Amino acid sequence: MAMPVRKMPEEKSVEERLARVETHLEHLGADVSDSKTELRRLAGKIDHLEEKLMARMSAVENSAVALSLRIERFKLWAVMFYIGGMGGLLFVLARGFKWL
Questions:
Q1: pLDDT, position 100
Q2: Average pLDDT over residues 25-41
Q3: Contact at 8 Å (CB) between 89 and 95?
């Protein structure tokens, strides 16, 4: 049994393939330039966001320092209240046992 002859696809000429590659390179160059433009625009936005973040961080740091001072004052007040309460309790016990 004879088999039909299969036709091979025609190969394109070197010039046609080169022209196709050149058009693809032109599109790639346009895409790269668009990407560069977009990156420059985003770099400006990122710098602006960094400045805002640093301002907020300094505000949070200042409030943390203020909170730390308030906690230290509260600790002092709590210790003084504790000492006063113990002194009052000792006074009541002394009066109850007729030591005073």
A1: 84
A2: 93
A3: no
Tracing tokens 């730390």 back to the chain, one arrives at 68
Residue that is written with structure tokens 């049994």 in the block: 1
Q: Which residue has the tokens 């602006």?
A: 48
Helices (H), the chain: 14-96
Torsion angle, CA of 23/24/30/31, rounded to 10 degrees? 160
Determine the longest span between alpha carbons in the chain, in angstroms: 133
User: How far separated are the first and last CA of the chain, in Å rounded?
Assistant: 133
**Side chain identity at residue 53, one-letter code:** L
The pTM of this model reads 0.47
Structure tokens, 86: 């113990």
